[in-house]
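lol so apparently i was supposed to do this last week
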Amino acid sequence: MTTQSESDITNTFVPQRLDTRAPLNELLSSRRSPRAFSERQIEPSKIVALFEAARWSPSSANEQPWHFVAATKEDTRIYNALVESLMEGNRRWAQRAPMLVLGVAQSVYLKIGRAYQHAWYDLGQSVANLTVQASALGLAVHQMGGFDAAKVRELLSIPDGYEPVIVFAVGYAERPETLPDDLRKREEGPRSRKPLEVMVFTEEWGKPSRLVEVQNSMTSDPDSRN
Ligand SMILES: Cc1cc2nc3c(=O)[nH]c(=O)nc-3n(C[C@H](O)[C@H](O)[C@H](O)COP(=O)(O)O)c2cc1C
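anyway here it is w/ flavin mononucleotide bound
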């Protein structure tokens, strides 16, 4: 089994402690979407583990609508096609990552021929699982919706019935000093989330749920926050 080495951990730049009402598992609290990637190659066994994590995700009717076109820098033609399909703002930093992956969703249930409304949801969940596995292996994932789906379909001959949904960069995160100034500032800037009150409701749509009030949190000890 692959374990996280000390050098993997020291490579990980965690710019701020997350503000949470209850402690999160470190695999989640240490996750972020970096732009600064080291050129260090990803060990082949870790690449397999990432896709196993995606493969064992849940999906509607166990249809498993996710497909991936994955390329390391050795797969020059495919890697370059993925880089070319990215919006310029993403291309600047993403082309340092040692692996780029296109996530593709199947548009119909193959067994029954009906439109697969949850295909994007299921693909997203498989990428989420892959991302958690990446954290466990000392790797980072940065997902990108900023790419040209028509271009990537053409460059990679994606057949009809399959939708290019996301491109993601995978690799070892590096300290932000390696980035151009504007990107470094964004990388070092504060990370934020909307409060739980605007997303969790019980009695009535829009009314904050009592289930996420501070006194219900698992701990009020500030030292146990992430
Ligand atoms: C579907 C999706 C599309 C995204 N598209 C882009 C993108 O095109 N470029 C980019 O730099 N980040 C992109 N992101 C990353 C988000 O900006 C990032 O997850 C968000 O700002 C929260 O930061 P964090 O992941 O570090 O917590 C995308 C993330 C998702 C899930």
